[in-house]
Amino acid sequence: MPPSERPIPSYAAEPPQEPLPYGRWAEALVEHFERAAETEIGAVQWYPERSHGGRTYVPATAPAGEGEVFGYVSYTREHEGAQATDFAAVADYTDETADDNPDWTLDLSDQEIGNWRGPEGRRGVITLVWGVSLVANGVVATAELGPTTTDQCELVEQRFTLVSLDAYTGDYVEVRVYGADGTELTRESLYEDGD
Description:
Elements: H1 23-37, E1 45-46, E2 50-52, E3 55-64, E4 67-76, E5 85-94, E6 106-117, E7 123-133, E8 138-145, E9 148-154, E10 159-166, E11 173-179, E12 184-189
Antiparallel strand pairs: 1-3, 2-3, 3-4, 4-5, 6-7, 7-10, 8-9, 8-11, 11-12
């Protein structure tokens, strides 16, 4: 196989290893997320966890006021099966919701979680992307950076989480959802009008 003309990180995060949070584990995560939100929030909706760079990220959204809070709770573990430690949470607010936009086919959120330097000093950001497919029969979501698929995640209750290089050499992440037969059902850029 010839060397890649575009050596960028692909599939750099571990696939989801656990079910969506529930019970006491969900309650513990909610406490961290509520503190980060700094406002009263409704029921938290969790997304598949992904591990990257030694941290596990569990994205979340929750109704708040006239919009919603979105973000994640992250943590580390010394080894598989160890207690989660070193919790951190990030939360932001938006008044743009899927309920107010019936034409949406994807409801996406994202947060930068790191930086990446490529050949010749080119720089990009590592971005955590999570969302809900609003079209029926989706089974997998992918992150695309220009011509390169950089990550994929099976949908769990129509929800997915991706980790991808973004904003690199003029390319920006686009999310696509595919059905069981490989048919593309929908796609959306993280950026409106390319910005």
